[in-house]
């Protein structure tokens, strides 16, 4: 469960990072992306572990609130699934059409960027 939570928060961070303060960005990046412990983040900023924990808790709740209102990550997942389904359908039903397959692959690649 912890891996799924970390993966989701990293994805939300990718979408909403510009909306966060520098401090929130730094804490989230070190804790979730760089996998530092609370103590290591606290040492980095010369604050208590409790201060880091509180900041991370507020920041992750803020990311979830942004997602609840804007749905950028959920919409991305829907577009990604649709592009992959289309790619699979084209590969199954139009195997000889290289140009159509290339365009479907391009759509999937666009969604991954």
TrEMBL record:
Keywords from the named record: DNA-binding
Example of a GO MF term: DNA binding
InterPro entries: RNA_pol_sigma_r3/r4-like, UPF0122, UPF0122_fam_protein, WH-like_DNA-bd_sf
Superkingdom, taxonomy of origin: Bacteria
Keyword Nucleus: no
Claim: rRNA-binding is one of the keywords in the record: no
Chain's role: Might take part in the signal recognition particle (SRP) pathway. This is inferred from the conservation of its genetic proximity to ftsY/ffh. May be a regulatory protein.
Similarity-based family: Belongs to the UPF0122 family.
Protein name from the UniProt record: UPF0122 protein D3P96_04820
